[in-house]
Design brief:
The protein has eight helices and six strands. By secondary structure, it is an alpha/beta fold. It has a six-stranded parallel beta sheet with strand order 1-2-3-4-5-6.
Length: 255
């Protein structure tokens, strides 16, 4: 996504989202992935804050900027169990960026995955560490949490040679929604519960980046504020049309 509304295909609160009043309209902003991919850094995130303000996009509601994948080291801290910022990319730490965003009237997002690894294939995900990672989000004063869907097994293995571990029987039963093993609802549920437990301290926007897998439309409104309905978009007309067609599936239609 560029500066256009990355989340434009998601639904309004009046239709389906957590009933906590956090988002009467869809949140809008920018995420680092499709610009910097694995080469994100503190300097680059600050440059995007400055660019957003210079363009005046914050005045039109674009106020979320998310640090996507590859922000952390491959191993968690041995003592605390927490993920650790890559000191070469983020020398002053995530809390420093959080303070910078907030001092400029903007909101900061972070990224993890409901699996053993993130979609990097080797950086730690949050599966089994939900409470620890939510404590980190609260300490860093994070506003938005993007939660991906790669490497769903605790041992990190998959049956596809990619980050996806397809449950072929369930996928055939629930087509066109693909299902993984373990399924999306069972893996997103613990994180949703931990985020709900700290809501009175910090109400964090929860994006379930589930790609439309596991029939996320059947449980998303009880877990989070928004959820992905398709695979990654591409910066092409064909990619836009493909996403429009996916979102016209019967399962996504609302009366």
């Amino acid at each position: 996504c560029r500066w256009a509304a990355c989340l434009g295909l998601l639904l309004f609160q009046s239709v389906r989202t957590l009933p906590d009043g956090l988002h009467p309209t869809p949140p809008m902003g920018w995420t680092s992935w499709n610009t910097f991919f694995e080469n994100n850094s503190q300097v680059k995130m600050i440059s995007q804050v400055d660019a957003l303000l210079e363009l005046g996009l914050d005045k039109f509601g674009y106020n979320f900027l998310t640090i996507d994948d590859f922000w952390q080291l491959p191993e968690r801290d041995n003592l605390t169990g927490r993920m650790v910022e890559d000191p070469e990319k983020f020398p002053d730490g995530i809390k420093y960026l959080s303070d910078y965003f907030h001092s400029n009237g903007l909101k900061i997002g972070m990224y993890s995955s409901a699996g053993r690894f993130t979609c990097s294939g080797f950086l730690p995900g949050s599966l089994g560490y939900e409470k620890t990672d939510v404590e980190m989000l609260v300490e860093y004063e994070i506003d938005y949490f993007k939660y991906d869907n790669c490497y769903p097994r605790l041992d990190g293995t998959t049956n596809t040679g990619t980050g996806v571990n397809i449950d072929y029987t369930a996928s055939a039963e629930h087509y066109p929604s693909l299902w993984q093993e373990p399924d999306e609802e069972s893996r997103y549920s613990p994180m949703a519960a931990e985020l709900a437990a700290v809501k009175e301290i910090r109400n964090i926007t929860f994006e379930m980046c589930a790609w439309g897998f596991g029939n996320v439309e059947t449980f998303g409104s009880g877990f989070g504020h928004l959820w992905r309905t398709s695979a990654d978009i591409t910066d092409t007309w064909e990619g836009m049309l493909w996403n429009i067609d996916v979102n016209d599936e019967v399962r996504y239609r609302q009366e």
